[in-house]
Amino acid sequence: MSTIVLVNLQKRFGDFTAVRGTDLTVGAGRFVVLLGPSGCGKTTTLRMIAGLELPTSGQILIDGEDVTALRARQRDIAFVFQMFALYPHMTVRNNIAFPLKNEHVPRHEIASRVDAAARMLRIEELLDRKTGGLSGGDRQRVALGRAIVRQPKAFLMDEPLGTLDADFRELMCLELRKLHNALSATTVYVTHDQSEAMAMADDLVVMNQGEVLQSGPPHEIYHYPATVFVGNFIGSPPMNFLPVEGAVHAGDETVRLHDAAVSIPRCDATAERVLLGIRPEHVVIDEHGPLRGKVIADEYLGSHQVLIIETAVGTLRARTSKDARLAAGSPVGLSFRRDRTLLYDAASGRLLPGAAHG
């Protein structure tokens, strides 16, 4: 298990800054997921950790050693790509053994490590088959096996499940997490799929436009998004953001949405333009609720349904029981769970400090 520390890491390609001022600590044995939309800088960050890209400035430390200028092969890190990068003319056994042969590991130790990896990945029966004829899921297991046998300091994975179909991807999420636990390895994993990230991560790192916007445990990021972007990106459906009427001042415990007074945890900051953030599951259909609206559509999802409601301050979504009977056009009253109500500075998009979340 190794600790990876990034210090003010930056990467520019000409006039374009792909990664800017990233400070991040990946704790030993943690499964850390870099999450964000395409082009946010997550893969570039991963490639810099691996030594496949050199940073423009900043430092990369592995177990306290500055490896910023070291080549990839000098960092003792295993990289698993989205495209499996296997040799189709070779057997599974020879593909997994390939990096060990290059390192001149003794033959008996190669055999032992390959057999152990195959048992862990449950691909023993495939060892003597050519990889060219395997399914995508089996090829991904072979690629993982080739990384495991190296017994590296850390595993880096760049969207390794991206080419798999949805059902098998869900299964492989579970398998990867079990594998991580069995190896007690430090893992940095890149994806743009929030469901994949939430299912596997010990810590999430949400990125956009080359910046780390928030990092921490998934439940913390879900319940207390640090920015409007994070609240929109994490969660399905995403967080509702509604404009507050007038400025908000430190000590306020009520805000106005149009003509509705809404209770909030005490605000500890002042801002001229404010958005109220609330998750759909914390919107309550309440005939006595202060905010009035009209149902314009519903999304039936089996275990629950999501109502799309038009109000004087904009459209919002409310997650309700699957048995709720509210047809399009139905008038509703709305209230919000006070302890789950957040305020954001509309100018910066950042969360305002409050009594409930520090």
TrEMBL record:
> Where is the organism placed in the taxonomic lineage, from the top?
Bacteria, Pseudomonadati, Pseudomonadota, Betaproteobacteria, Burkholderiales
Q: Which GO terms describe its molecular function?
A: ABC-type transporter activity; ATP binding; ATP hydrolysis activity
For this chain's UniProt record, which GO biological process terms are given? carbohydrate transport
Per UniProt, the keywords (alphabetical) are: ATP-binding, Cell inner membrane, Cell membrane, Membrane, Nucleotide-binding, Translocase, Transport
Q: Which SUPFAM superfamilies match?
A: MOP-like, P-loop containing nucleoside triphosphate hydrolases
Q: Which residues form the ABC transporter domain?
A: 4-234
Q: Could you tell me which PROSITE patterns the record lists for this protein?
A: ABC_TRANSPORTER_1 (PS00211), ABC_TRANSPORTER_2 (PS50893)
Annotated InterPro entries? AAA+_ATPase (IPR003593), ABC_transporter-like_ATP-bd (IPR003439), ABC_transporter-like_CS (IPR017871), ABC_transpr_MalK-like (IPR015855), ABC_transpr_MalK/UgpC-like (IPR047641), Mo/tungstate-bd_C_term_dom (IPR008995), NA-bd_OB-fold (IPR012340), P-loop_NTPase (IPR027417)
Q: Name one GO cellular component term.
A: ATP-binding cassette (ABC) transporter complex, substrate-binding subunit-containing
**What is this protein called in UniProt?**
ABC transporter-like protein
